Amino acid sequence: MNHSGPDAAPPAPPPAALRLSFDADALAANWRALDRLSGTARAAAAVKADAYGVGAEQAVPVLREAGCPDFFVAHWCEARELLGLVPSASIAVLHGPLTAADAAFARATGVRPVINSPAQAQRWLDAGGGPCDLMVDTGINRLGVALGELGDAALAGLEIDILLSHLAAADEDSPCNERQRSAWEGLRRTIPHHRASLANSAGIALGDGYHGELTRPGLALYGGVPRRELDGAIRQVIRPEAAILQVRDLGPGDSVGYNGTFTATRPMRIGVIALGYADGYLRAWSGKGVLRSSGRALPVLGRVSMDMTVIDLGQAPELGEGDWVSADYDLPAAAHASGLSQYELLTLLGKRFPR
Ligand SMILES: *Cc1c(COP(=O)(O)O)cnc(C)c1O
Fold it and tell me: How many CB atoms lie within 10 A of CB 252?
Protein backbone atom coordinates (compact mmCIF):
# COMPACT_ATOMS: atom_id res chain seq x y z
CA MET A 1 0.00 0.00 0.00
CA ASN A 2 1.17 3.46 -0.81
CA HIS A 3 -0.17 5.17 2.30
CA SER A 4 1.03 8.65 3.00
CA GLY A 5 0.65 9.27 6.69
CA PRO A 6 -0.99 12.36 8.13
CA ASP A 7 2.42 14.03 8.33
CA ALA A 8 3.36 13.55 4.66
CA ALA A 9 2.97 16.64 2.48
CA PRO A 10 0.15 16.19 -0.05
CA PRO A 11 1.31 15.91 -3.66
CA ALA A 12 1.26 19.00 -5.89
CA PRO A 13 -2.29 19.68 -7.05
CA PRO A 14 -3.21 18.66 -10.59
CA PRO A 15 -3.75 21.54 -13.06
CA ALA A 16 -6.92 23.57 -12.51
CA ALA A 17 -9.87 23.23 -14.89
CA LEU A 18 -9.78 26.96 -15.59
CA ARG A 19 -7.00 29.25 -16.71
CA LEU A 20 -6.35 32.79 -17.87
CA SER A 21 -4.63 32.89 -21.22
CA PHE A 22 -2.08 35.70 -21.06
CA ASP A 23 -0.49 37.31 -24.13
CA ALA A 24 2.80 38.77 -22.93
CA ASP A 25 3.62 40.13 -26.40
CA ALA A 26 0.33 42.04 -26.49
CA LEU A 27 1.01 43.53 -23.04
CA ALA A 28 4.49 44.68 -24.11
CA ALA A 29 3.11 46.03 -27.40
CA ASN A 30 0.39 47.94 -25.54
CA TRP A 31 2.96 49.59 -23.27
CA ARG A 32 5.10 50.53 -26.28
CA ALA A 33 2.07 51.94 -28.12
CA LEU A 34 1.06 54.04 -25.09
CA ASP A 35 4.66 55.19 -24.61
CA ARG A 36 4.74 56.27 -28.27
CA LEU A 37 1.35 58.00 -27.99
CA SER A 38 2.72 59.86 -24.94
CA GLY A 39 5.06 61.79 -27.23
CA THR A 40 8.06 63.18 -25.35
CA ALA A 41 6.67 61.86 -22.05
CA ARG A 42 7.46 58.34 -20.84
CA ALA A 43 4.66 55.93 -20.04
CA ALA A 44 4.64 54.47 -16.53
CA ALA A 45 2.31 51.61 -15.51
CA ALA A 46 -0.51 51.45 -12.98
CA VAL A 47 -0.22 47.90 -11.60
CA LYS A 48 -2.44 48.16 -8.50
CA ALA A 49 -4.95 45.41 -7.71
CA ASP A 50 -2.60 42.66 -8.92
CA ALA A 51 -2.07 44.46 -12.25
CA TYR A 52 -5.83 44.91 -12.64
CA GLY A 53 -6.42 41.21 -12.05
CA VAL A 54 -4.03 40.10 -14.80
CA GLY A 55 -1.48 39.02 -12.16
CA ALA A 56 1.41 41.29 -11.15
CA GLU A 57 3.78 38.35 -11.09
CA GLN A 58 3.34 37.71 -14.82
CA ALA A 59 2.61 41.28 -15.98
CA VAL A 60 5.14 43.45 -14.16
CA PRO A 61 8.35 41.77 -15.40
CA VAL A 62 7.01 41.96 -18.98
CA LEU A 63 6.35 45.70 -18.62
CA ARG A 64 9.78 46.25 -17.11
CA GLU A 65 11.41 44.30 -19.93
CA ALA A 66 9.50 46.41 -22.48
CA GLY A 67 11.12 49.49 -20.94
CA CYS A 68 8.59 50.76 -18.39
CA PRO A 69 10.52 52.86 -15.84
CA ASP A 70 7.88 53.60 -13.18
CA PHE A 71 5.19 51.57 -11.43
CA PHE A 72 2.23 52.76 -9.37
CA VAL A 73 0.35 50.66 -6.82
CA ALA A 74 -2.36 51.62 -4.33
CA HIS A 75 -1.30 49.75 -1.17
CA TRP A 76 2.00 49.27 0.62
CA CYS A 77 1.60 45.47 0.54
CA GLU A 78 1.44 45.75 -3.26
CA ALA A 79 4.73 47.66 -3.26
CA ARG A 80 6.29 44.87 -1.26
CA GLU A 81 5.32 42.33 -3.92
CA LEU A 82 6.75 44.58 -6.66
CA LEU A 83 10.08 44.89 -4.87
CA GLY A 84 10.45 41.14 -5.31
CA LEU A 85 9.58 41.32 -9.02
CA VAL A 86 11.38 44.46 -10.24
CA PRO A 87 13.79 45.50 -7.47
CA SER A 88 15.51 48.19 -9.55
CA ALA A 89 12.34 49.91 -10.81
CA SER A 90 10.85 53.11 -9.47
CA ILE A 91 7.77 52.25 -7.38
CA ALA A 92 5.24 54.67 -5.87
CA VAL A 93 2.30 54.04 -3.53
CA LEU A 94 -0.78 56.11 -4.43
CA HIS A 95 -2.54 55.85 -1.06
CA GLY A 96 0.45 57.49 0.62
CA PRO A 97 1.61 57.09 4.23
CA LEU A 98 -1.47 56.70 6.41
CA THR A 99 0.62 55.60 9.41
CA ALA A 100 4.16 56.00 10.73
CA ALA A 101 4.70 52.33 9.82
CA ASP A 102 3.93 53.14 6.17
CA ALA A 103 6.47 55.97 6.21
CA ALA A 104 9.08 53.75 7.87
CA PHE A 105 8.53 51.06 5.23
CA ALA A 106 9.06 53.64 2.48
CA ARG A 107 12.25 54.90 4.12
CA ALA A 108 13.59 51.36 4.47
CA THR A 109 12.82 50.26 0.90
CA GLY A 110 13.13 53.35 -1.30
CA VAL A 111 9.51 53.00 -2.43
CA ARG A 112 8.16 56.55 -2.83
CA PRO A 113 5.03 57.62 -1.01
CA VAL A 114 2.55 59.72 -2.96
CA ILE A 115 1.73 62.52 -0.51
CA ASN A 116 -2.00 63.29 -0.54
CA SER A 117 -2.46 65.77 2.33
CA PRO A 118 -0.53 68.13 4.60
CA ALA A 119 -0.84 65.49 7.35
CA GLN A 120 0.81 62.87 5.11
CA ALA A 121 3.53 65.39 4.25
CA GLN A 122 4.23 65.97 7.95
CA ARG A 123 4.22 62.22 8.64
CA TRP A 124 6.76 61.72 5.86
CA LEU A 125 9.01 64.52 7.14
CA ASP A 126 8.74 63.19 10.71
CA ALA A 127 9.96 59.80 9.47
CA GLY A 128 13.00 61.45 7.89
CA GLY A 129 11.56 62.40 4.48
CA GLY A 130 13.37 61.98 1.18
CA PRO A 131 12.15 61.76 -2.41
CA CYS A 132 8.37 61.48 -2.68
CA ASP A 133 5.57 62.25 -5.13
CA LEU A 134 2.79 64.79 -4.57
CA MET A 135 -0.83 64.31 -5.67
CA VAL A 136 -2.78 67.55 -6.04
CA ASP A 137 -6.55 67.38 -6.49
CA THR A 138 -7.60 69.53 -9.45
CA GLY A 139 -11.25 68.48 -9.57
CA ILE A 140 -11.90 64.79 -8.95
CA ASN A 141 -12.36 65.45 -5.21
CA ARG A 142 -11.02 62.08 -4.30
CA LEU A 143 -7.45 61.72 -3.05
CA GLY A 144 -4.91 64.55 -3.08
CA VAL A 145 -3.95 67.89 -1.57
CA ALA A 146 -6.65 70.50 -2.23
CA LEU A 147 -5.61 73.63 -4.11
CA GLY A 148 -6.47 75.67 -1.01
CA GLU A 149 -3.99 73.66 1.12
CA LEU A 150 -0.94 74.25 -1.08
CA GLY A 151 0.43 76.97 1.22
CA ASP A 152 0.87 74.47 4.08
CA ALA A 153 4.39 74.62 5.53
CA ALA A 154 4.87 70.82 5.51
CA LEU A 155 4.46 70.76 1.72
CA ALA A 156 7.28 73.27 1.29
CA GLY A 157 9.66 70.79 2.96
CA LEU A 158 9.01 67.98 0.43
CA GLU A 159 11.51 66.71 -2.12
CA ILE A 160 9.09 66.07 -4.99
CA ASP A 161 9.94 63.72 -7.82
CA ILE A 162 6.56 63.35 -9.58
CA LEU A 163 3.92 66.08 -9.33
CA LEU A 164 0.63 64.31 -10.03
CA SER A 165 -2.95 65.14 -10.59
CA HIS A 166 -5.69 62.76 -11.76
CA LEU A 167 -8.37 63.33 -14.41
CA ALA A 168 -11.99 62.73 -13.43
CA ALA A 169 -13.52 62.21 -16.89
CA ALA A 170 -10.76 61.66 -19.44
CA ASP A 171 -12.89 58.99 -21.14
CA GLU A 172 -15.49 61.66 -22.04
CA ASP A 173 -15.33 64.93 -23.94
CA SER A 174 -15.98 66.86 -20.75
CA PRO A 175 -15.06 70.50 -20.11
CA CYS A 176 -13.60 69.16 -16.87
CA ASN A 177 -10.55 67.89 -18.81
CA GLU A 178 -9.39 71.33 -19.91
CA ARG A 179 -10.13 72.83 -16.48
CA GLN A 180 -7.99 70.18 -14.79
CA ARG A 181 -5.22 70.48 -17.40
CA SER A 182 -4.99 74.20 -16.93
CA ALA A 183 -4.94 73.93 -13.12
CA TRP A 184 -2.16 71.32 -13.37
CA GLU A 185 -0.18 73.61 -15.72
CA GLY A 186 -0.37 76.26 -13.00
CA LEU A 187 0.99 73.77 -10.46
CA ARG A 188 3.88 72.87 -12.76
CA ARG A 189 4.95 76.52 -12.75
CA THR A 190 4.73 77.03 -8.99
CA ILE A 191 5.64 73.76 -7.24
CA PRO A 192 9.26 72.57 -7.53
CA HIS A 193 9.38 69.00 -8.88
CA HIS A 194 11.25 66.76 -11.34
CA ARG A 195 8.47 65.23 -13.44
CA ALA A 196 4.85 66.22 -13.94
CA SER A 197 2.12 63.64 -14.62
CA LEU A 198 -1.59 63.98 -15.33
CA ALA A 199 -2.84 61.45 -17.88
CA ASN A 200 -4.25 57.98 -17.25
CA SER A 201 -4.92 55.73 -20.29
CA ALA A 202 -7.75 57.89 -21.62
CA GLY A 203 -5.82 61.08 -20.86
CA ILE A 204 -3.03 59.97 -23.21
CA ALA A 205 -5.52 60.23 -26.08
CA LEU A 206 -6.39 63.82 -25.13
CA GLY A 207 -3.13 65.06 -26.66
CA ASP A 208 0.29 66.54 -25.91
CA GLY A 209 -1.00 69.13 -23.47
CA TYR A 210 -1.92 66.33 -21.07
CA HIS A 211 1.36 64.40 -21.16
CA GLY A 212 3.88 66.28 -19.03
CA GLU A 213 6.96 64.14 -18.44
CA LEU A 214 5.19 60.92 -17.43
CA THR A 215 1.84 59.32 -18.26
CA ARG A 216 0.19 56.68 -16.05
CA PRO A 217 -1.79 54.17 -18.11
CA GLY A 218 -3.43 51.20 -16.43
CA LEU A 219 -6.52 49.94 -18.24
CA ALA A 220 -5.16 50.22 -21.79
CA LEU A 221 -2.03 48.20 -20.92
CA TYR A 222 -4.31 45.25 -20.22
CA GLY A 223 -6.44 45.58 -23.34
CA GLY A 224 -8.98 48.24 -22.29
CA VAL A 225 -10.00 50.92 -24.80
CA PRO A 226 -11.38 53.92 -22.88
CA ARG A 227 -11.53 56.28 -25.89
CA ARG A 228 -12.11 55.69 -29.60
CA GLU A 229 -8.76 57.33 -30.45
CA LEU A 230 -7.04 54.26 -28.95
CA ASP A 231 -8.99 51.83 -31.15
CA GLY A 232 -6.61 49.73 -33.20
CA ALA A 233 -3.60 50.65 -31.03
CA ILE A 234 -4.46 48.27 -28.18
CA ARG A 235 -4.43 44.46 -28.21
CA GLN A 236 -6.34 42.00 -26.05
CA VAL A 237 -4.08 40.62 -23.29
CA ILE A 238 -6.11 38.09 -21.31
CA ARG A 239 -8.93 35.64 -21.95
CA PRO A 240 -10.64 33.33 -19.44
CA GLU A 241 -10.64 29.67 -20.47
CA ALA A 242 -12.31 26.66 -18.86
CA ALA A 243 -12.58 22.92 -19.32
CA ILE A 244 -15.82 21.08 -20.05
CA LEU A 245 -16.74 19.03 -16.97
CA GLN A 246 -19.71 17.20 -18.43
CA VAL A 247 -21.70 16.94 -21.63
CA ARG A 248 -25.43 16.19 -21.70
CA ASP A 249 -28.33 16.02 -24.10
CA LEU A 250 -31.52 18.03 -23.73
CA GLY A 251 -34.91 17.30 -25.22
CA PRO A 252 -37.61 19.83 -26.02
CA GLY A 253 -39.00 21.23 -22.75
CA ASP A 254 -35.87 20.57 -20.65
CA SER A 255 -34.66 23.67 -18.83
CA VAL A 256 -31.14 24.56 -17.68
CA GLY A 257 -29.64 25.73 -14.41
CA TYR A 258 -31.06 27.59 -11.42
CA ASN A 259 -34.62 28.77 -11.95
CA GLY A 260 -34.72 27.23 -15.41
CA THR A 261 -34.30 30.50 -17.26
CA PHE A 262 -33.48 28.68 -20.50
CA THR A 263 -35.73 25.96 -21.93
CA ALA A 264 -34.83 23.91 -24.98
CA THR A 265 -37.33 23.82 -27.84
CA ARG A 266 -35.43 21.15 -29.78
CA PRO A 267 -32.85 18.44 -29.02
CA MET A 268 -29.56 20.04 -27.93
CA ARG A 269 -26.11 19.01 -26.79
CA ILE A 270 -24.82 21.14 -23.94
CA GLY A 271 -21.56 21.40 -21.99
CA VAL A 272 -21.03 22.29 -18.33
CA ILE A 273 -17.81 24.31 -17.93
CA ALA A 274 -15.71 25.00 -14.83
CA LEU A 275 -16.19 28.77 -14.76
CA GLY A 276 -18.68 30.67 -12.64
CA TYR A 277 -19.43 33.90 -10.87
CA ALA A 278 -16.97 33.04 -8.09
CA ASP A 279 -14.32 33.37 -10.81
CA GLY A 280 -15.61 36.77 -11.85
CA TYR A 281 -17.73 35.43 -14.70
CA LEU A 282 -20.75 37.19 -13.25
CA ARG A 283 -24.44 36.48 -13.67
CA ALA A 284 -24.43 39.47 -16.03
CA TRP A 285 -23.34 36.88 -18.62
CA SER A 286 -26.40 34.66 -18.06
CA GLY A 287 -28.00 34.09 -21.45
CA LYS A 288 -25.57 36.62 -22.99
CA GLY A 289 -21.99 35.33 -22.81
CA VAL A 290 -20.29 33.46 -25.62
CA LEU A 291 -17.58 30.82 -25.26
CA ARG A 292 -15.58 29.71 -28.28
CA SER A 293 -13.82 26.70 -29.68
CA SER A 294 -11.75 27.28 -32.84
CA GLY A 295 -13.76 30.42 -33.51
CA ARG A 296 -17.16 28.73 -33.25
CA ALA A 297 -19.65 30.46 -30.95
CA LEU A 298 -20.97 28.44 -27.97
CA PRO A 299 -23.56 30.66 -26.25
CA VAL A 300 -24.19 30.61 -22.49
CA LEU A 301 -27.53 28.98 -21.66
CA GLY A 302 -29.48 29.99 -18.55
CA ARG A 303 -27.93 31.33 -15.37
CA VAL A 304 -24.25 31.38 -14.56
CA SER A 305 -23.70 29.45 -11.28
CA MET A 306 -20.97 29.92 -8.70
CA ASP A 307 -18.56 27.36 -10.17
CA MET A 308 -20.19 26.38 -13.46
CA THR A 309 -21.74 27.71 -16.62
CA VAL A 310 -23.72 25.80 -19.23
CA ILE A 311 -23.03 26.36 -22.92
CA ASP A 312 -24.61 25.23 -26.18
CA LEU A 313 -22.29 22.78 -27.99
CA GLY A 314 -24.40 22.83 -31.17
CA GLN A 315 -21.62 24.39 -33.25
CA ALA A 316 -18.90 22.09 -31.87
CA PRO A 317 -20.38 18.58 -31.67
CA GLU A 318 -16.99 16.89 -31.31
CA LEU A 319 -16.22 18.54 -27.95
CA GLY A 320 -16.32 16.37 -24.85
CA GLU A 321 -15.29 16.22 -21.21
CA GLY A 322 -11.86 17.73 -20.63
CA ASP A 323 -11.85 19.86 -23.78
CA TRP A 324 -11.22 23.58 -23.33
CA VAL A 325 -13.24 26.59 -24.45
CA SER A 326 -12.43 30.29 -24.14
CA ALA A 327 -14.70 33.20 -23.25
CA ASP A 328 -15.29 36.16 -25.54
CA TYR A 329 -13.56 38.82 -23.45
CA ASP A 330 -12.49 41.62 -25.76
CA LEU A 331 -12.92 44.36 -23.16
CA PRO A 332 -14.83 47.09 -25.04
CA ALA A 333 -17.22 44.52 -26.56
CA ALA A 334 -17.52 42.58 -23.28
CA ALA A 335 -18.33 45.79 -21.38
CA HIS A 336 -21.02 46.62 -23.92
CA ALA A 337 -22.51 43.12 -23.76
CA SER A 338 -22.41 42.68 -19.97
CA GLY A 339 -23.08 46.17 -18.64
CA LEU A 340 -19.91 45.88 -16.52
CA SER A 341 -17.07 48.39 -16.92
CA GLN A 342 -13.84 47.35 -18.62
CA TYR A 343 -12.12 47.94 -15.24
CA GLU A 344 -14.55 45.62 -13.45
CA LEU A 345 -14.18 42.92 -16.11
CA LEU A 346 -10.45 42.81 -15.38
CA THR A 347 -10.32 43.23 -11.62
CA LEU A 348 -13.16 40.75 -10.99
CA LEU A 349 -11.19 37.78 -12.30
CA GLY A 350 -11.07 35.42 -9.36
CA LYS A 351 -8.37 33.77 -7.30
CA ARG A 352 -8.97 30.33 -8.79
CA PHE A 353 -7.34 31.30 -12.08
CA PRO A 354 -3.71 30.20 -11.84
CA ARG A 355 -1.57 33.27 -12.67
C1 LIG B 1 -5.52 53.74 -11.46
C2 LIG B 1 -4.85 55.02 -11.72
C3 LIG B 1 -4.30 55.32 -12.98
C4 LIG B 1 -4.52 54.44 -14.19
O5 LIG B 1 -5.79 54.74 -14.74
P6 LIG B 1 -6.39 54.00 -16.03
O7 LIG B 1 -7.69 54.68 -16.25
O8 LIG B 1 -6.56 52.57 -15.64
O9 LIG B 1 -5.43 54.18 -17.13
C10 LIG B 1 -3.56 56.47 -13.10
N11 LIG B 1 -3.40 57.32 -12.04
C12 LIG B 1 -3.95 57.09 -10.84
C13 LIG B 1 -3.76 58.06 -9.74
C14 LIG B 1 -4.71 55.94 -10.64
O15 LIG B 1 -5.28 55.72 -9.45
Answer: 10
CA 221 to centroid of ligand 1, rounded, Å: 11
In single-letter form, the type of residue at position 41 comes to A
Q: Which atom of ligand 1 is nearest to the CA of 166?
A: 13
CATH assignment of the domain containing 286: 2.40.37.10
Please list the residues that pair with 160 across neighbouring strands: 132
46 CB within 6 A, ligand 1: yes
pLDDT tens string 116-167: 999 999 999 999 999 999 999 999 999 999 999 999 999 999 999 999 999 9
Whole-number Å distance, alpha carbon 71 to ligand 1 midpoint, is 11
- Produce one character per residue of 71-84: b if its CB has 16 or more CB atoms within 10 Å, e if not: bbbbebebbeebee
Q: Answer yes or no: 48 catalytic.
A: yes
> Where on the phi/psi map is residue 313: left (φ > 0), alpha (ψ -120 to 50), or beta?
alpha
Alpha-carbon span 169 to 202, nearest angstrom? 9
212 and 277 assigned to the same domain = no
Please give the residue range of the domain that contains residue 130. Answer: 23-226
Residue 4 has pLDDT above 70, yes or no: no
Is residue 290 domain-resident? yes
Query: Which DSSP category does 14 fall into?
Result: P
Q: How far is the CA of 351 from the centre of ligand 1 (A)?
A: 23
Residue 99: which CATH number? 3.20.20.10
Q: Using alpha carbons, list the distances in angstroms from residue 140 to 143, 206, 226.
A: 8, 17, 18
Q: Is the pTM here over 0.90, yes or no?
A: yes
